[in-house]
């Protein structure tokens, strides 16, 4: 597995910033990065900085790619939420990773700080309805037109100062699912202004900390960890360590960056795994031509 240790994740992104976030892994076929809180996963009508565009520019400059670089968005995180995301560097990888998402074979796990005390383990099963005008998701009855089944499983890691640190795993992937279901259960997330758990200026305590998938070409199972810090997370800082199932012997060997790009990434207050010895780039991977848009 591959990891970003506590303190290695990026701070909240400035509105106009374009620095390269923490990149945990990269090869010819995919890229895994940590999305900073408050950065868009992909561009929207606001025109604000988004992770997809930043990473495309990083690839274009680092590898001197002509034209518009291809980078496929496989999944998203809500704008205020930070954490792990995987991107596809070829259309072939995009199709295979998207199929894993569709079949619920990609493991995405989250940490949250909820208000109130949660039980040791819990499952929330609800039907959700999205109000497109308000961009708000609410729990509803099963017979409401347009409603979707939403199921999540959680375990409470610790309880402090009338809050609960919880690890969550989604059985379904719905818009704002965690935020809406936890709020409906009487445990809104710390800092979540939209769903009743925060105040102005607070940062939502929801983080994508674990990502597991099968490599689209080698089919090797890959597991990544990244831990949050600051704000509500500070209350549980002693517990936010890389899990024991992280295997140091399975660190990536495929990543090679120029000194210039490394300095840019480190300047963003992130940490990047640099191999102790010069790696063989793209070792044991099938040959596949990268696609660029012209």
Overview of the molecule:
The chain has helices at residues 51-62, 91-102, 177-184, 259-266; strands at residues 2-4, 23-26, 30-35, 68-69, 72-73, 82-88, 107-115, 121-131, 136-140, 148-160, 163-170, 206-214, 221-226, 292-293. A hairpin with a 2-residue loop joins strand 10 and strand 11. It has four helices and 14 strands. The strands form two sheets. Strands 1, 2, 3, 5, 6, 7, 8, 9, 10, 11, 12 and 13 form a twelve-stranded mixed sheet that branches. With 294 residues, it is an alpha+beta fold.
Helix content percent band: 10-25%
On the 0 to 100 scale, the average pLDDT is 80
Order of SSEs: EEEHEEEHEEEEEHEEHE
Beta-strand residue percentage: 25-35%
Shape: globular
Termini, distance in Å? Answer: 36 Å
Number of strands: 14
Number of continuous helical runs:
4
Instruction: Give the uncertain stretches in residue-range form.
Output: 3-17, 246-294
| Biggest pleated-sheet summary | 12 strands, mixed
Using the CA coordinates, give the radius of gyration. 19 Å
Helix/strand structural class:
alpha+beta
């Amino acid at each position: 597995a591959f990891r970003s240790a506590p303190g290695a994740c990026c701070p909240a992104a400035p509105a106009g910033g374009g620095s390269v976030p923490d990149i945990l892994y990269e090869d010819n076929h995919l890229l895994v990065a940590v999305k900073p809180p408050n950065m868009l996963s992909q561009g929207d009508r606001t025109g604000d900085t988004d992770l997809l565009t930043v990473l495309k520019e990083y690839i274009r400059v680092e590898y001197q790619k002509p034209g518009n670089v291809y980078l496929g968005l496989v999944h998203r995180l809500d704008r205020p939420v930070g954490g792990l995301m995987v991107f596809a560097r070829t259309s072939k990888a995009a199709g295979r990773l998207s199929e894993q998402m569709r079949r619920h074979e990609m493991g995405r796990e989250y940490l949250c700080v909820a208000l109130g005390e949660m039980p040791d383990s819990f499952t929330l099963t609800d039907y959700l309805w999205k109000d497109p005008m308000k961009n708000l998701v609410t729990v509803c009855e099963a017979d409401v037109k347009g409603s979707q089944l939403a199921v999540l499983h959680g375990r409470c890691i610790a309880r402090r100062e009338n809050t609960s640190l919880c690890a969550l795993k989604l059985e379904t992937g719905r818009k704002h699912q965690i935020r809406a279901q936890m709020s409906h259960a009487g445990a809104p997330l710390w800092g979540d202004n939209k769903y009743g758990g925060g105040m102005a200026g607070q940062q939502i305590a929801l983080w994508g900390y674990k990502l597991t998938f099968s490599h689209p070409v080698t089919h090797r199972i890959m597991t990544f960890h990244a831990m949050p810090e600051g704000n509500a997370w500070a209350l549980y800082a002693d517990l936010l360590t890389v899990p024991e199932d992280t295997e140091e012997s399975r660190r990536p060997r495929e990543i090679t960056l120029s000194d210039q790009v490394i300095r840019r990434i480190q300047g963003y207050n992130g940490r990047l795994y640099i191999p102790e010895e010069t790696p063989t780039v793209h070792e044991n991977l099938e040959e596949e031509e990268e696609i660029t848009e012209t």
